[in-house]
Structure formats: C-alpha cells, structure tokens
Amino acid sequence: MNITRKKNIIKTSHKKSGNIATFLMLSPAILFLLVCSIYPFLWIFRYIASDYNGFTANFTGTRNLVRMLNDSTFWGSVLHTFEYAFYKLIFIIPLSLLMAVLLNQKIKGTVLFRGIYFMPTIISTAIAGMIFGFIFATQNGILNSVLMAMNIIDSPIKWLSSQSIVMASITILAIWGGLGNYMLYFLTGINGINEDVYESAKIDGANAIQTFFRVTLPMLSPVMKVILMLAITGAFKDYEAIMVLTNGGPGNRSNVMFLYIYRLIFGSSGGTSQAQIGYGALLSVVAALIVGIVTAIYLYVSRKLDDVV
Amino acid sequence: MKRKRLFSLLLALVLTLGLTACGENQTSEEQGATNQKSGEATTEEITTIEVWTQDRHDSEYVQAKIEEYNETNTDGILISLNVVTDDYENMLALAYAGGTAPDIASTPVALNTFADTGMIIPLNEYIDSDETYQKVNAPYKNAYEGLNSKDGNIYYVYSGMRSGVRVQYNKTLLEEAGYTEIPEKLEDYIEMAKDITVKGSGETFGIGFTSSSPFERLLEMSAQVSGVYYYDYVNGRYDFSGYKDILELGQRFISEDIAYPDQQGVDNMRALFAQGEFALWSNASQEAGVFTSQIPITDFEWGVGTVPSLTGEVNGALQTNPSKAYAIFSSSEHKDKAWKVIQYFQSEEFIKGYLEEGYSLPITQYMDGVIDKTKIGRLADFSLLEYESVYPTPPTVNLTGDNYRILLWNAVMGHIGIDEAIEDLNKRYNDALDADVASGAVKRLVISDYDPLNPSEGTATYLTE
To answer: Is the N or the C terminus of chain B less surrounded, counting Cβ atoms within 10 Å?
Structure first.
C-alpha cells in the first residue's frame, strides 16, 4: 500500500517538474509570439474607430465604418483582388504541377531546370516589378519587340497602359514569380509517393497519362489541399510587385485591396490628404476577414481531399 | 530519464536568462552611451547639438561646413549631423516620443503634425533679436501660412527655393517641326506637340509624361497660372470645377496619341527625354542638375520655357517649393545653442556657398544679389519668375478614395468622365473637410482678401465650423 503511494508521489513530482521544464522551454517562443504577433494584431483594433495619422488620434465612432461601406475605390479593389487571384490560380497551379511532373523524370538536366524555375522566387518582388516594367514597355519593351519581330503583332501592345490588358500583365508577372515555389511544393509531394504504387500501375499496364490522373494526382490530394490554401491566401495578399509595376493603374484597373490599404496607411502624394492609419486599420481587418472567409469556404469545399489517401 | 529532464530544465533556464540578459545588456549599453554623451558635455564644456536632415544630395558641402564650424566656433558647440533619408517624419516623431529627438530638424516638416502637437517651437523671439539674420533670410516676407507659419508663429525659415514647374524642350525636335519657342497658350502647346509627334512618324513624340504624379507636372501648373486652384480660399471649400477646360484640352494628349505611349517612372522618362525620344518634358529646377550631371544631355541642345496657360495670359501664381529650413525641437535642452547653429546654417557665407554649388535657388532678393550667378550653371535658366509664389496650405483631410491628382489624371486618360470626376472630388473632399472640422481634427482656412496672383499675401483665418 505504502509502496504504491510512494510511487504515485514520485510520479506526480516528476510530472510537475516535467511541466515546469515544458513551460520554461516554451516561454521564449510564447514571449516572442505575444510581443511580435499577438500585440501588433491587437494594436490594429486600437485605432479602427479613430482618425490616426501617426501623430494624433481622434476618436470618430462609427465614421470609419460608414466610410468603408461607401468607399467605392475599396470595393473596386476587392473585386480586382478576386479577379487577379482567379487568373493567377487557374494558371499557376496546373502549370506548376505540370512542371513538377516533368522535372521529376529521371532525365539529365532536371536539377538545373528546377534551379532555373525556382530562381524568380528568390528575386525581390520590387526588382521583378521593375524588370517587367522594361519588358512590358510599349515603345521600347522587349516583349513587344519580340512579338513584332515574330510577326505575331502588327503594332505595339499597351501592356501597362491599357485597362483591358493590364490584368493579364500583372498575372504574367505573378505566374513568373510564383511558379517555382509551387513547383517545389508539388515536387516534394510527388517524391513522397511510394514507388511501389507506380510499379504496380506499370505492371497493370497504365500509360503515363493514366498514371498521372489515376495515381499521382489522387496521391497528391493532401499536399494539393495545402498548396491550394497557400496559393489562395498568397494571391489575395499580393500587392508589392503590382505597386512597382503599375501602382494600381491605369485608372485603378490593377488596384488590389492591400495596395489601397498600403497607400492609405503610408499616405500618398496628394498633398491634401494624409496617412490614415485608423481607416487603413479598419480596412485591414475587413481584408483579413475576406481572406479568412475565402479560405474557410475553400477548406470546407476541399475537406474530401484528405480522405483520398 | 532523470538526466534528460535536468538537461531540459537547464537548457530552458539558459534560454530564458539569455533573453533577459540580452535585453539588460542593451539597456546598460544605451545608458553607457547616454552617460558618456552627457559626461562629454559637462566635463569638456562642449555642447553637442544634434541635427537631423533628410538631404543627402548636399551632404558633402554641409558636412565640410560643419567640420569648419566645429573647429572654429568659440561657443563650445559641436554639431553632429545625422542623415535620415527614409521615413523622415515618422523617425523624428518616434524619436520625440522616445525622448531621443535631435535638437534641430533640417528640411521642412509638416506643421499640422509637428507644430500643432508642440514638437517644434516658434522661432519669432530669436528671429526678432537678430537683424542680420532678418536681412539675409527675410523671414517675415517668406512666412507662408500653413507651410512654415501659423497664427503669426514662424516655426522655421527657408533659405532656398526650388523653382515651380518649367518646360524643358529638345531644341532640335522643335526646330525640325518648325518651332523655336514654347507657346504661351495651352491649345497651341498641344498643337505643337501634335505636330512633332506626326512628324516623328512613330519614332519620336511631342511630349512625355511620367507615371509619378503626371497631373502635377504640367496640367495642374497650367491651371494655376490660368487662375484655377482646387481650394476656394474665400469660401473655405474645396472646388475642382475650374479644372474642366484644362482637362478637356489635356485629354487630347492621350486621345490623339500625341504623348509618348508609356508613362514610366521619373528617371526612365528623363532618360528617354535625354535620348531624344520626345520633345517636351516638364519639371522643376532639379532638372538643371539632372540633365547636366545625372543623365547629361549631349546629343542636342535643350531649352527651358514657362508652362502654358489656358488663354496665354497669367492669371494666377505658379507654385514654388521653398526648401532648406531648420526647426528646433521643444525637447531640446540647448535651445539657445541650437539657435546659434541655425544662425550659422542660415548665415550669408553658408547660404552663398550652398547656392553657388547649385543645390538650390535663392529665396531672398538679398541673397539673389550676393551670389555669383555664373557659378550656378543651367540653374540660372530656372530663376524665379515674377508670378511664382507659395500657396497657403489647404486643410489636410482624411480623404476616402483617390486623391485629386490621381482622379484628374484618370479623367485625362479617359478612364473616368470629366464631370463625374469633378463632382466626385467636390463631394469627397468637402465631406472629409466638414467631418474633420466637426471632429476638431482640422480648422477651415478662409482668406477673404485672397488674390490668386499673390496667394501668400492674404489674411488667413481659421474657422472651427
């Protein structure tokens, strides 16, 4: 009886010291999380009902909310964000999957090509925006020169100054910048598929296309779910390269919601308007809600992807 | 197992202590630095006056003059210059909030944030006690409502001026199209640009616009000299109605394919102008330095003309940008010595050298007479015009949506109708103004005796409703 009690006491004390050790081990990470992530997030809420220019804050009650509801530029930018995200996703996901499958073959030079396709990912988005500015230039741009030399077009295309074309231009830049990244995710997913499955498919007489659609794609489902989620949230948050390439123009046609919020928070060269951190904070919360809702809908719709394997 | 737990505990302790120690070290280092700084001041009786500036372009001259002053002054002052080019105003405000603001902030800072919050102090008493300073800098003549002065208080005094917008033109392209000078009427200016584009046969163009604030660099200035401004000073309201004629004419640049097809960044467009891709470019006096040293024009002669107006007559002042001013922070413990430093920075000798190096144009008649103009090169072409002035700063509002420069340029580009744009701007700007006045965030500026040719000379009153 006494021995059992002693054992229990020893167990409890071990458990307690284990808990303390766990807490102490976690404390630096928790501290950083609180200071660097939770506090800034809560800080946003401090100003959503104020006019705050970085120096003085005036409480304005529901004014920011009313402004937000009537702000046609903001809602226009939300629509542009959905449009941009749609174009980006329908091209970048199939393309990166195709590249991953092709570069997963045991052929010479695949490592080199993986490196080449991944390279845009490590280039600064601002620099990429500037480079594409030169590529897309109407008069002396490389792209128009090449297309005209190949007799594909007769006159230069206004890649950046035409409202009907600019969305295609920023989508091309987004695909160029993100393709390598998603390709790498898919390659990792493909490498995780057991070779035995391919061998048995081969024995069963499946050709390359059948193997891709019946084996690779279903086996990639869980990875695909995560990649799609990252791609959706990423596409909704893109704005840096767009800011450098078009600055939201022409005529706000490429103005996405985070670019508009950025301009509000840091002020613009209007002279008569100022940095609007309070209103920008409210729009940030709304934008985060929009991205959150889209992601939640996606997760609900795609919940079956987990059950494939 | 026991050893493993003990190891985990020790590791956690080391990590936590390490973090705390890092924080403590930093604090003690900072304290050390502060002690050292104050120690220097007291033991050697030398006061360090810290000056922050945003200007890097003139730092060679300014630094050399500061070294000269530090070696020769008998007031026990050591000037320490800190160049902060990024996010200047926020950095100053953060430093002020953290108790580490400099004694002096060089280059203008916004009054609605720095003066209204008491971060910088009025300099009137100092100015009044120094007649030489007044002779050289004409502080009361160059006091601009809302810009460097408010309610009679002068917060900083300008010692330089950037000219208003001028037209820079490629003489060769103009001559080839049969023109020798810049027309005074906007319509004729557009016709000339069109002629050059047509004769250029798709190789060269009449005019080029940048993507960076394109409306501001020609059409807004044409409107100003035509007597059109976006703020109705007499009634204290925003009013964009006057821009209609200018916008209708401006649309021709785009709808008739007169302008260079792309609007790229400023430096890209400057480079294209320097290559002779288009004939007309418009910007202020900084282009003197740009086209002589940064992107030198060597293949053709370039001239400088004035911006055209609607009728060819000048009915309003052209906006200029005063520069190079110095404010004293209210947190400075050495305000009198800070003023001595400002006296040096704005002395005749200092400004003369600065202007002759071509960093800026003189703002006072006195300095204009003192400098050797043969030394300033192409900057002489940008000398101030009789009708150049500084507009009182309209109230800064919390605007919803695009500002007027973006929207009016969208109207020029044909992305939005002119009437729609004007109506939208009138509504959004005045809604924002009314709401901000009601909340007490700004005051309504009214100048009942406002004269568009002398905008800075009226009597400003600030209304709370």
So the answer is: N
Beta pairing partners, B154: B149
pLDDT digits (tens, 9 = 90+) for A53-104: 777 788 888 999 999 999 999 999 999 999 999 999 999 999 999 999 999 8
Give yes or no: residues A42 and A136 share one domain: no
* pTM of the predicted model as reported, rounded to 2 decimal places: 0.82
Residue B232 is predicted with a pLDDT of: 97
Domain that holds residue B182: 166-319+396-463
Chain A's closest residue to B398, CA to CA, is A273
What are A216-225's pLDDT values in tens digits? 888 898 889 9
Contacts of A14 in chain B (CB under 8 A): 5
Residue A176 lies in a domain: yes
The verdict on a CB contact (< 8 Å) between A160 and B262 is yes
Could you give the number of structural domains in chain B?
A: 2
> Domain for residue B73, yes or no?
yes
Average pLDDT over residues B248-257: 96
Q: What is the ipTM of this complex?
A: 0.81
In contact, B51 and B80? CB cutoff 8 Å? yes
Which chain A residue shows the shortest CA-CA distance from B111? A55
- Which residues 211-250 in chain B show a CB within 8 A of chain A? 211-213, 216, 230-231, 238
Task: Look at chain A and report how many structural domains it folds into.
Answer: 2
Question: How far away is chain A from the Cα of B216, in angstroms, using its nearest Cα?
Answer: 9
Judge if A147 and A69 occupy the same domain.
Answer: yes
Quick one: which of B79, B141, B47 has its CA closest to B326?
B79
- Rg (alpha carbons) of chain A, rounded to whole number: 26
Q: A280 and A218 in one domain?
A: yes
- Whether residue B262 lies within 8 A of chain A, CB to CB, comes out as yes
DSSP string over B15-84: HHHHHHHHHHHHHHHHHHHHHHHHHHHHHS--EEEEEEES--TTHHHHHHHHHHHHHH-SS-EEEEEEE-
Strand B231-232 to strand B149-150: parallel, antiparallel, or no bridges (unpaired)?
unpaired
Which residue, B335, B357, B384, sits at the end of a domain?
Answer: B384
* Domain boundaries, position A220: 63-307
Instruction: State the best of B262, B264, B420 to mutate against chain A, taking most chain A CBs within 10 Å.
Output: B262
Whole-Å CA distances, B214 to A77, A216, B228, B348, B404: 22, 53, 18, 37, 12
Contact A20 B13 (CB under 8 A): no
